[in-house]
Amino acid sequence: MESQDQNPVVLITGCSQGGIGHALARAFADSNCKVVATSRSLSTMSDLQQDPRFYLQELDVLSEQSVQHVMSNVIDKFGRVDVLVNNAGIQCVGPLAEIPLPALENTFNTNVFGSIRVVQAVVPHMASKKKERIVNIGSVSALAPGPWSGVYTASKAALHALTDTLRWR
C-alpha cells in the first residue's frame, strides 16, 4: 500500500477520452489528487497510461465482480477512497413507445444501478471518516425531458432522487 499522505484519492467512473469523466480526472490530477480513472476498456484512456498521476482500471459498472475487483485493487494500493465520482453513463434516444425494453433496461442498469453498485462498494471504506464525498453526475434533462430523451431523462431523475437520499446518512 502506498503511504498515507494527505493527497485525496479520487475514484472516477466513465473516464473515456473526450468525456466529462476524462476531463474531471485531469482536473483532479492537476489538483494533486491520486486519481483512479476507470472505463470499460483501458484503450479508451490510452492518453493517461504514461502519466504517473493516474491509476487506471478497467471497470464495468454492470458487473458486481468488476466493481468489487476494482475496489479491492484501490484499497490495496491506497488504503482508502476519499471521493467517488459516478460518471459512467449511456444515452438512450428515441420515442419512448418505440424503444426496445432491453435498451431501456440497459440504460437504467448503467445510469442508475451501476452508480448505486459502486456507491455500495465504496461506502464501507468511507463511512467511518465522515469527510469523504460522493458525486453522481446527473443531467439537466432530468428537469426538462424532451420527446426523444425519456429513458435517459428518467434514469437521471432516478439517480438524482437516490443522490438526495444519500445526503441523509
Structural class: alpha/beta
Total helices: the number is: 4
Total domains: 1
CATH architecture level-2 label: 3-Layer(aba) Sandwich
What's the β-strand tally? Answer: 5
Low-confidence spans: none
Oligomer: single chain
Residues in β-strands, percent = 5-15%
Query: How would you write the strand order of the largest sheet?
Result: 3-2-1-4-5
Quick one: overall form? globular
At the third CATH level, what is the topology name?
Answer: Rossmann fold
Rg, Cα atoms, Å: 16 Å
CATH homologous superfamily classification: NAD(P)-binding Rossmann-like Domain
Largest sheet: 5 strands, parallel
Instruction: Give the overall pLDDT as a whole number.
Output: 93
Instruction: State the helicity in percent bands.
Output: 25-40%
InterPro entries: NAD(P)-bd_dom_sf, Sc_DH/Rdtase_CS, SDR_fam
Keywords: Kinase, Oxidoreductase, Transferase
Organism: Hibiscus syriacus
Family: Belongs to the short-chain dehydrogenases/reductases (SDR) family.
Would you kindly provide a brief summary of this structure?
This protein is an alpha/beta fold. It has helices spanning 20-30, 64-78, 101-122, 150-166, and strands at 9-12, 34-39, 54-58, 83-86, 133-136.
Describe this structure in words.
- The protein is of the alpha/beta class.
- About 40% of the residues lie in helices and about 15% in strands.
- The protein contains four helices and five strands.
- A five-stranded parallel beta sheet has the order 3-2-1-4-5, sandwiched between helices.
- The two termini are about 30 Å apart.
